[in-house]
Amino acid sequence: MAQDRTRGDGEMLDAVVIGGSFAGISAALYLARGRRSVAVVDEGETRNRFASAAHGLLGHDGKPPAQIRAEGLRDLLAYPEARLIAGRALRVTGQRDDFTVELAGQSLRCRRLVLAYGMRDLLPDLPGLAEVWGQTAFQCPYCHGYELSDRKAALWMGGPHVADHARFLRQWVPELTLLPDGLLSEQDHATLTSAGVRVAAAAPVRLQSDGPRLQVIHLSDGRTLPAEVLYMATRAEPACDLAAQLGCRMEMGMQGPIVAVDAMQASSVPGVFAAGDLARPVFGAGFAVAAGVMAGTACHRSLVLG
Ligand SMILES: Cc1cc2nc3c(=O)[nH]c(=O)nc-3n(C[C@H](O)[C@H](O)[C@H](O)COP(=O)(O)OP(=O)(O)OC[C@H]3O[C@@H](n4cnc5c(N)ncnc54)[C@H](O)[C@@H]3O)c2cc1C
């Protein structure tokens, strides 16, 4: 009878990878190529799923995120050592050489774990933002700035790096207005003025759009700002609490808490590796692939050498 590659069937797997996107598929690919049994548990909600296309990843520039994931899974599942288990990992227990991953209705046992479940963006409570997020509202100009260059844009941001970030954005945006999230210093004002960045005097209260196309930002003083693109800084948190369940040491990334790892992507818990946005202060698909490869090879090495 053909092996059912969607089930754990109680056997001890070499590794379970939680999260099947850029980082997780890359890690699993290296484990499978190292001839180790590996299951990827994934519920399919990648961080960039709100965007129509992903950019900046070798060989995939401009493809829809779901297509990139599907192509990655197709490559991975060509290896008989690998299997995909669609669903959410709810609980993880155990220790190196004997972990248990619980999903609704089934559990998996494994010797090593790779956590690659990504981060969840915590969008501010701004009416209209959900409609444009990933289409004309973004965090990262490298990801989508090129396609939207030369359009009227606003940057909604605060903190000590705001003036530098606005100057940086001018690379893509000739007409930029800063919506300061907090007070600006005299020095910031001077830097922004000399960089040709306008500063709005009020905060955004509502976005008006035509479907996913941003049109107007309504401000708290009753004024309106025509804008086709909104760049903003968001906070983020791990997409689930499995690292906390295992007791992995966390550290503060640029957007929120991330899993602390060493140069081999090993977490503070023996036998547990972490990769991708979950374990990197600066996000990006290419970074996630690279970290996934490192986690996969380091995990494989620890299976072989102990
Ligand atoms: C709007 C937007 C657009 C972006 N555009 C780009 C771009 O153009 N180029 C670029 O390089 N980067 C882009 N990024 C960043 C990019 O999305 C991330 O850097 C990348 O997705 C990180 O990959 P990852 O594998 O770490 O995590 P993710 O891609 O987020 O994948 C994590 C996976 O784990 C799954 N998961 C979570 N918890 C569990 C659980 N408990 N059990 C099972 N599965 C679970 C999720 O469902 C998901 O499938 C964008 C981000 C956003 C928000």
Please tell me about this protein's structure:
The protein is an alpha/beta fold and 306 residues long. It folds into 2 domains: 12-120 and 235-305, 3-Layer(bba) Sandwich (FAD/NAD(P)-binding domain), CATH 3.50.50.60; 124-232, 3-Layer(bba) Sandwich (FAD/NAD(P)-binding domain), CATH 3.50.50.60. The protein is built from 8 helices and 19 strands. The strands form 5 sheets. Strands 1, 2, 3, 4, 5, 6 and 19 form a 7-stranded mixed beta sheet that branches. A 5-stranded parallel beta sheet has the order 8-15-9-10-11, with helices on one face. Helix 1 (22-33) runs parallel beside helix 2 and helix 1 packs parallel to helix 8. It is elongated and about 65 Å long. The two termini are 34 Å apart. 42% of the residues are buried. The structure holds flavin-adenine dinucleotide. Flavin-adenine dinucleotide (FAD) binds next to helix 1, strand 2, helix 4 and helix 8.
Q: Separation of termini?
A: 34 Å
- Secondary structure tally, helices: 8
Using the coordinates above, name the CATH class of the largest domain.
Answer: Alpha Beta
Strand content: 25-35%
What is the CATH architecture term of the largest domain? Answer: 3-Layer(bba) Sandwich
Class computed from helices, strands and strand pairing:
alpha/beta
Give the SSE string. EHEHEEEEEHEHEHEHEEEEEEHEEEH
Rg result: 22 Å
DSSP summary, beta strand count: 19
Principal-axes geometry comes out as elongated
Annotated CATH topology of the largest domain: FAD/NAD(P)-binding domain
Helix-residue proportion:
10-25%
| Number of domain modules | 2
**Which ions, cofactors or small ligands are bound in this entry?**
flavin-adenine dinucleotide
Oligomer description: single chain
The biggest beta sheet is recorded as: 7 strands, mixed
| Low-confidence region ranges | 1-8
